[in-house]
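User: Can you predict the 3D structure for this chain?
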Amino acid sequence: MAEDHYREFIGKKHIAVSVVLALIFWVAFTRILVPFVPAQSLSWQYIWSGFTALCLTGVFYIAIHMFMLVVGEQRRNR
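Assistant: Here is the predicted structure, written as structure tokens:
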């Protein structure tokens, strides 16, 4: 049976760091996606690029946590 080491490897510091990284990622991708949104006004371009960047940011946030768990488990096994 697999053990759950999530709380052992992911502390409050790691969660805070990943939230800050996710916010930076969201802002960067919102700015990158603005020219690709076919809207008439700049405000609607930012709104829709922000919504699109939310999906990408969610995947990035989950990937950060998966990476931290893998690295923590490898350190534990050494």
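Residues 30-78 form one domain. The chain has three helices and no strands.
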